[in-house]
Amino acid sequence: MTPPVTGRGPVLSVRDISKTFPGQRALSSVDLTVQPGEVHALLGHNGSGKSTLIKVLAGFHVPDAGGEVLVNGEPLELGAPSRSHERGLRFVHQDLALLGPMTVAENMAFTIGHVRTRVGTIDRDSERSRTTALMDRIGIQVDVDAKVEDLDPIDRAIVGIARALDGLDGNGGLLVLDEPTAALPPHEVGRLFAVVRDLRDRGVSCLYVTHRMDEVHELTDTFTVLRDGEVVQSGRTADYSGDELIGFILGAQARQQTRTPGGARESTDGEGRAGAALVVENLRAARVERFSLSVAPGEVVGIAGVMGSGREFIGPALTGAVSATADRYQTSRGPIGAISPRNTRRHGVVMVPGTRGPGSMIESFSVTENLTFATLDRYSRLGWLDRPGERRAATSWVQRFGVRPADPDRALRYLSGGNKQKVLVAKWLNTDPSVVVMDEPTAGVDVGASAAIHDMIVDVAAQGVACIVTSSDLDDLIAVATRVIVMDRGVVTATLSGEQIEKNSILSAMSGATDARADRADRADLADLMERSRQPDHLDLEEPHV
Ligand SMILES: Nc1ncnc2c1ncn2[C@@H]1O[C@H](COP(=O)(O)OP(=O)(O)OP(=O)(O)O)[C@@H](O)[C@H]1O
């Protein structure tokens, strides 16, 4: 790792910054320093204040009076986004805000402005060359004429970073990356790290927000941990173990968080004593060619596969959210007929979607209203809503998942991203499903809440629910699955159980699938995947994750 550049003052000094929302102190006297050429991890549980701090830096929130932010030693005018931009602060949010139907060059022009000819028309050629030049600066080329919706997630992330770098001349500046790997499959994370390291070597510092603990030691030089809006620790990453960092993040909670990897549990191969909860033969849907699965009550089946393998379409296909057919689709309640949302729901097959996108949650509704939205009939009495009953159920889920703030009446929009995710998972578990498909259940969720969600999945399974977890985060699969199915190009290519459920074996099975199509695959990706599967950092199975 390149040592941080020294000799100049800090690129960023946050001093005594506080932010109070009505009824909520989100930041309390926060100090944070980033030196030039340094990757600084900003860590903290869901709701600890990371996004609020970033929004203060971006000029989106005005902090309480009293504190200051210095950029390269000079005070920054707070609450003015254009001033933050002028002073070299750049932000890449999780939602990259790229427009799918537009090309890469058009997206760049849309945000950083059009290039005009002398007669005032748009100069498309210059816009394309400018985009190529921005890409060159991070040493990666993406087809500037490709539509963003056709790009891989990693290329989209890279376009987002390249766009943010506009106007930063060569040396200096601070790039704030908010959970940039949350939407990336494991084998593509290395490419993003290479871009960040390359920028660091060229003097662009980085404030890096992540919940993935394995990334912290791999990528960052220094760190700050926020807990409940306060800085609890900062320092050089190399001076602390992963467990120590987790301890800072979770505080007293840490000691309560333990879990047994699911791989250690016995596999039932889909046929438990009570018979299968779901049998599907030759499921076909967009990106799913032929998928067969039998899952028993109480079993947790994990589905792994790189982006585009079909993994992400299994949930929508099984619940009829996308058009799907199968030679056989049978639950414990009998054969299903057409695979439609209504039929699958009647059979108790539900899906917890991976994104908190439109339709999955209503931001202006309270936590309680969101939690009970899919089960309103249960709380209706003679046409009236049993509000106390609704609230009791919500309170119990809020406590079980540790939703913060622990206030079931709070409008969802005031919750942090990870806490919204917990409410979303709870909403579907509250429907008492017999089969639940969870896509990326811990995306954006902190290390403590991830463990809580893993425990909850195991708990739900122990109550006889068949669980199918599709995830790009191998830790999810290792923590909960009794069997892991690996997919490639819409078909199952491997099934792992027992002791095979560990990172190395899953990655090799995924790489085996990739290997089989190596003639058309990107060999760099494959090499990267293999390289990562050999790195001991990624395979530290002795250490408990939480
Ligand atoms: N606009 C707002 N109004 C009221 N409270 C808010 C607002 N924005 C954030 N909060 C509260 O401030 C606290 C910090 O939230 P923040 O979004 O900064 O957390 P975070 O660390 O980014 O969490 P996550 O990892 O889940 O994204 C939370 O309790 C949140 O509910």
Automatic annotation (TrEMBL):
Gene3D superfamilies registered for this protein in UniProt? P-loop containing nucleotide triphosphate hydrolases (3.40.50.300)
Q: Which domain of life is it from?
A: Bacteria
Please state every residue range assigned to the domain named ABC transporter.
Answer: 12-253, 272-514
What PROSITE patterns has UniProt attached to this entry?
Answer: ABC_TRANSPORTER_1, ABC_TRANSPORTER_2
Q: Sorted alphabetically, which keywords does the UniProt record give? A: ATP-binding, Nucleotide-binding, Repeat, Transport
Question: Could you state a single Gene Ontology molecular function term?
Answer: ATP binding
Identification of the protein by name: Ribose transport system ATP-binding protein
Q: Which source organism?
A: Nocardioides soli
